[in-house]
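I'll show a typical protein example:
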Amino acid sequence: MLKLNRENPQGAPPMTASYAKSIDPAATFAAARSHAEQAESALVGVDMMRAPHDEVVAFAREQAQEWARRLVEAQFALRAQHERRLEVVGADGVRRGSARDSERHLETELGRVAVPRLAYQQVGCADLHPLDALLNLPPDMYAYGVRRMVAKEVARASFDEVVELVADYSGAAIEKRQVEELAVRAAQDFDAFYVRREHVPEQTDDLLVVSTDGKGIVMRHQDLREATRIAAETSTRKLATRLSPGEKPNRKRMAQVATVYTVPAWTRSAADIVHGLRGDEPDADRPKTRDKRVWASVEKHQSTLIRTAFEEAERRDPEHRRRWVVLVDGETKQLRAVKAAARRLGVKVTIIADIVHVLEYIWDAARALFGESSPEAERWVSNRLLALLDGKSGGDVARTIRWWADRRAKQIDASGRKAIATTCRYLADRTRTRLMRYADALRDGLPIATGVIEGACRYLVKDRMDRTGARWSLAGAEAVLRLRALRASDDFDDYWRFHLARENERNHAAHYANAEIPDPLPTSKRHLRRIK
């Protein structure tokens, strides 16, 4: 480590010209140049001249990484040599009157480097390091390049896999526990980013769509919601090694998923929908969604996330000029939260029950009436679907199903009767049946299926969180969901710039008087020329 050469006057005078001349950058970078020369010599040696290409590339990559690490370390040392004494006052109003040489280490993508700097001290007060603020160093040893790599990779790979990826593609070393901790820290500015981000309202009359749904995540016992945790603690199983029919594992916590997007109106007929469900509809005919944001939370309550989704929609259409469409599955608590969020903003919304969700209930009744995988059942379901799409109410379809149930009563067992009753109850519910005005929706070109939110549930939650044997902590699950949402919404790069700015505020500016960080390096052009 280079010995630092600093002036030591009282107070905080500027660096003198004679001192600036005494610093030799060539000597500071000598170790990096020496390493490059040694690597070059090795590459023209007998062994490397006869080595296969992969060994040559691997050797060159390893040596280049070490050369770059030494360059960075030398540059940090050069900064420290030029650091000048300052008047440093903390946010507590206390002047740090003593300054001493100190050093910390930083785990970077290139490997571990030393960072020398001055520590300003006062008895009973925390040390302050202005050069750390200039470098925007994190509070622990992991550099932001490593943190960024962890944040991006943890969104798609397991914690163990991220440990391997970091080791394979960088010079950093990190443990599994630190991966989860860094993910949590990386995701902490998620809400603030979307609240503060400027969103220019779209100049369009296209539909503004909000959709939401839930997906369960297997959690560690202590991180279950209280009702689920109590149920898990008080439940008894008939069998020790597996669940019996009707038993629930009581180990999941629901993640609420939301999406907001813009889509043009698309007028269709009932026949078009039936063809689309059969896969006959060309993808080219379907209008493309745009400006889509998807996100999920296992920590926030359902109503909180739905309110956040409406706030996101209002940022896009603050004057409520466009038509707002809300797609739901018809769950009662979800509906209450949607209506409450709409009332809060004073916006008129068109709420539509997902036709595919409704269709699943009708299929349950069809299987009870005609058995599994029956062509007759398929035709029967198509007729019920056409009735809904042509303007029949859910109550009308429920009465038709009851008529069929009476007609085939002798062929229906107890479980079938229960399925039919559940379907009819769902369809005939007064609140829900108002959401099934599909003929009006098709005429106005509104979406009637929640394909976007279903895809978000699969991508954001199931594909990453539902791995065999995974048991999530609340903090870890929330962080991964946020980071996956940033990548899915194509916002990760913008978010990371915002996150770094917030980190500087938290870790550095907040510790100085008036949040003003004193500049520890000379700024004159004459001095910088001398360094070169």
Q: What stands out?
A: The chain has 24 helices and seven strands. The beta strands are 98-108, 111-121, 207-218, 252-263, 290-297, 324-328, 349-353. The first strand starts at residue 98 and ends at 108. The radius of gyration is 31 Å.
